[in-house]
User: Fold this.
Amino acid sequence: MRKVVIGGLILLVFIVIAILAFYLVNSVLYAYVYPSRSPEQPIAFSHKLHAGDNEIPCLFCHIYATKSRVSGVPSVQRCYGCHKAIKTKSPEIKKVLGYWKEKKPIPWVKVHDLPDYIYFTHKRHVNAGVRCQECHGPVETMDKIRRVAPLGMGWCLDCHRNRHERKGGPKGPEDCWECHA
Assistant:
């Protein structure tokens, strides 16, 4: 009987160590390996041109940010709404028009992708006055979007603890279950 209990405890310790190692590796990857992540996209979209030069607000394209967990990527219909008449001869716009014609979504590759065990909601942050640039960097200056913040737990907690002092906004929650639900 005693051997069974000891064996069970060893197995439990092993499982706990494996789970902690998984979280540690993911945290290190997200904090140090992926921060400058800038994957190739199916269309060379320039935030500098759209959000910078043309001053299109983030929420014009990312329409779910004030009402959902996700900000959403623009639908092909949103892109087509402007580009059925603007720069229609551009090779990149021809790609957009091709997706529109085929009635297929543009297969964008996520740049700011968090692990599945993190619960993050754009709605709560945007409605609390957090500007997009605080997490996503100066996207209005980027021809090719890239991740500039590590988006790791320490980085988020620093903001939750100190943002109200730096920006005058509310202090964020520090309860583990707010993000790890």
